[in-house]
Amino acid sequence: MLVKITSNVPYLKGIDGDHKVDGNLSVEELLISLGVTWDEDALVLINGKFSHGDEKLEDQDHIQLLVPIAGG
Amino acid sequence: MKIYRIDMKNLTVKEDQIEKYKNLGGRALTSQVVHDEVPGHAHPLGPYNKLVFANGLLTGSGASSADRYSIGAKSPLTGGIKESNAGGISGLKLGRLGIRGLIFEGIREDFQIIHISKNGFKFDDATPILGKDLSEAAEWLREEYGKHVAVWLIGVAGEQKMNLAGIAGQDKEGHPTRYNGRGGLGAVAGSKGIKAIVLDDEGVDKSQPKDKQRFREAMKQYHTWLMETPGTAKVFPELGTSALVRTTNTLGALPTRNFSTGSFELYENISGETLRETLLERGGEGSPTHACMPGCIIRCSNVYADKAGKRVTSPLEYENIGLLGSNLGIGDLDDIAEINRLCNEFGVDTIETGGALGVLMSQNVISYGDVQGVIEALNDMKEGKPLGRIVGSGAEVVGKIYGAYRVPTAKGQTMPAYDPRGIKGLGVTYATSPMGADHTAGQTIRAQVDHHSPKDQVKTSLGAQQSAPIFDYAGLCFFSAGAIQGRWDIIADLISAYTGQEISGEFLKDMGKNILNTEHSFNKMAGFTKADDRLPEYFYHEMNEASKTVFDVPQEELESIGVEGNAR
Ligand code: SF4
After folding, report:
1. Which of B219, B413, B472, B541 fits as disulfide partner to B436, beta carbons 3.0 to 4.6 Å?
2. Structural domain containing residue A13
3. pTM for this one?
4. What's the ipTM?
């Protein structure tokens, strides 16, 4: 199945785009396998909703990585 | 480190001897003094209010991003306690002079320049810089007192004692653009006749840690964290705080047209990414990366330049972009930068100004997107004309005068650039913080929680509200938070080694809670009740179409951490 990632985090631009994913991966597992540190590198949305990390991925899912800073 | 009391009525100075203040710094000191010495019912612009400047405990130590200072008083905007802090180099210079805090008392009609050097305090007539733009006034001060000095000063808004007047400090290049903006502290300074404070450290040695070896070791660890954490090492230096435009727009929390919705169709034009590209393309005096104080590793600030590469303003922050941009329907960085520049020149809080103008636009006094109309209103403020006076009173007063229903304030203070329906934890902070609507009082956007759900928001906000004062006590920039990650023992080590006062990480955590309680208890004395711990009504029933949410955190839960929950 295909999962799309859109990253707003400048140093994680490399993982932008479609990813072929096999089987039973969760959002957190996929991101970790791509070198993203959970709860540190990004605020993570899955299909526009906040991810808890444990959602099982499905075909055509869309993961968004938002910049996780604290404002000014 | 000394604390001085300055009697502005009689222009006399004495060293303070109160034992309990000796080990306090930053927000701990400002809030304790206001709590202990200002009557709850005092008029903010009257003789019983006090204006307190206090360096953080690490200010001047050489640790990265740690030269911040707090200014506190009873606020003319909220009627409650206020602490506002900033970076730059003014605190650093105060520390070099061996001073931790300044407590200003009394009021006067004329304006003074207070010159502080190793020879003591001197009062000079401020007439030559009255009515001037801040860059011109700061330039005059440096000509008069020497290029090496740093200054604090108020602008025309503070002279007119407007509710949105801030106090400006100086960045390391000498520009008076680092603001203690919130809560109308510039009006309190104006009421006391404080036009400028000149910090002259000529002939003064750099201060040294009490235990150099221990300090070096703790600092090495802290700096390693800053350099290894992606947020502080990569995001802030590249995009600054404006990296948040895309984040909040996605979450439906970017204030748009007087907080009527949370996403802006022109957000890409004003995003951190566009800001960076624009500045790199233009070159010249602009820069997407800038340190407001020497040695800051994070360097979140920027210098905005025009098409010819000439400096316009610094910094253009996320809050400025949100409040002066999308909130006013303005989607062009050059326009926002020009409005920001005027705010800095006149000495006003950009957030409150954006809030006041947004409410004015909602009443069709100026149209959304009307940049010229905004500039004229700001110029009216400088000249003290009626519309300028109205804007200068802040969003809440504008709303009352024009009969507006939608006024995005809490405890009378404009919300920063996060719609509380899109990031509900911040809604809790706005409603319950003793400061009124203030993101720095308890920022929750960083947490990987469902910001659209009412669940866990009170807990998240309370945690943030209790840790924010630790930064403000230590003099640390809040942007180091992502790197420190609550590992307070090393920060306690830094403070112990620098000051010689032995403290622990647990002590710091207790300090955070104590400061918050002290502030709530002042507000209680000032007459605040749980009725004040609310957001404006429309956020509870009008949907933010971008986030598809209303603010629905249960009120009982929220009140448990508000004035009556906290100040028991
Ligand atoms: S992170 Fe930004 S605001 Fe904080 S000290 Fe550094 S430059 Fe100043």
Report:
1. B413
2. 2-66
3. 0.96
4. 0.91
